[in-house]
Amino acid sequence: MFARPGADPQSLRETLDELELGQKVVVLVDGKAEGASPVSELIRQSWDLGPVVRRYRTFLNRFQLLLSSIDQGAPLTGERAFVVQTLLIDSFRRITLHDPRLPLSLLPADWPGNTAYELCRHLYRRTYRLVRNHVLPRFTDDTSSAQVPAEILRRFGGL
Questions:
Q1: Which of 19, 98, 126, 127 is most buried by a 10 A CB count?
Q2: Which residues are CB-neighbours of 19 under 8 A, at least 6 positions away?
Q3: CA 138 to CA 136: how far, in whole Å?
């Protein structure tokens, strides 16, 4: 992004045309886009969101099935919860590395990213205490006074 108050729009347009960037750059003058493709078209040209959508949907299918299994009474020990949480976060992070994190208003109407986030958040919170009780004894003798770092407690809006 380049911002310059009082820039000469005509000079900028000539430079962009000379560099053949006229349709790939959004120029805002007084807060209004000028002479560019619609933002939705620029997004389509700039990001291939298809693979990200497919990854999110795969994530949702896989972990929704797991959540349903847990809801139906599948045994969840501390060790299993630790495995679930590890795979959950690893899978989610792998997707978000490719997600451009555009504002929701610029994404396709059926964007699955927010639903995937909510599922990840729910499963993380659901497994948190089991994981904590499984992991802490391996690092301290006194689990009753062990302090969990504040950044962990703030994950997903607070545990």
A1: 127
A2: none
A3: 5
Can you list the alpha helix ranges (DSSP code H) found in 37-156? 39-46, 50-71, 78-96, 113-135, 150-153
Angstrom distance (rounded) from CA 19 to CA 97: 31
Question: Is residue 33 helix, strand or coil?
Answer: strand
The whole-angstrom distance between residue 154's C-alpha and the CA centroid of its chain comes to: 16
8 Å CB contact between 99 and 52: yes
Q: Distance between CA atoms of 65 and 76, rounded to whole angstroms?
A: 14
Model confidence band, residue 9 (pLDDT cutoffs 50, 70, 90): confident
pLDDT tens by residue, 91-120: 999 999 999 998 887 888 899 999 999 999
